[in-house]
Design goal:
Largest sheet: 3 strands, antiparallel
CATH topology of the largest domain: FAD/NAD(P)-binding domain
Radius of gyration: 22 Å
Number of domains: 2
Helix content: 10-25%
Shape: globular
């Protein structure tokens, strides 16, 4: 929900469509979050399993889906089942993939590394497909956990800048404050 609502607030964004495997009743979000997202204009497509991200000339054009008829098996384990006879497509120029603990990136058309994790730029989260970003547990990162944790704050700001400008641009850091010179002699000692 957060990604969809934040994307909707970006300058120039006309619409945001949220697709998820779960039905509205099973959706892993608080009811108030979903209600606020709908109120803000996010369009929901529930029970939809992505099959591939469609590209042309290196740019994202849409996402193909098939219907998800169940997410969990009888033992309450994650084991989605799909109905290929009910398929659809959503047009898109940017795709934000937000997936929990793992990912099957085989159909995304992106480079993957060990364990099927997506190869993305450490600083920007950009994949090899312009406009497609990946982060969190889905991304290959061999750095220590405390450095990976920082990944959750800085790169989203950078990918947001890309979405706002439509291209990469470096933002200059603010100038460092100058140290004030002390006036007069410095007194030291216990009676100072």
């Amino acid at each position: 929900m957060d990604a969809a609502r934040c994307a909707l607030r970006l300058p120039g964004v006309e619409s945001v469509q949220l697709a998820c495997l779960e039905s509205r009743a099973e959706m892993p979000a608080h009811a108030w979050e979903a209600a606020e997202a709908l109120e803000e204009g996010v369009v929901f497509h529930d029970s939809a399993g992505p099959t591939r991200i469609e590209t042309s000339d290196g740019k994202v054009e849409g996402v193909a889906f098939h219907a998800c008829i169940s997410v969990f098996d009888e033992n309450k384990r994650f084991n989605p089942k799909f109905d290929d006879s009910r398929a659809g497509r959503l047009a898109a120029d940017t795709v934000i993939v937000t997936i929990g603990q793992g990912i099957d990136a085989a159909g995304l058309g992106v480079e993957t590394g060990p364990g099927g994790r997506i190869v993305a730029d450490r600083d920007t989260l950009a994949t090899g497909i312009p406009g497609l970003f990946a982060g969190g547990d889905a991304v290959l990162d061999r750095r220590p956990w405390w450095m990976r944790w920082r990944r959750g704050t800085r790169p989203p700001r950078r990918s947001t800048r890309f979405c706002e400008a439509g291209r990469w641009r470096r933002r200059r850091p603010p100038p460092r404050p100058r140290r004030r010179a002390t006036r007069g002699p410095t007194l030291r000692g216990r009676n100072a």
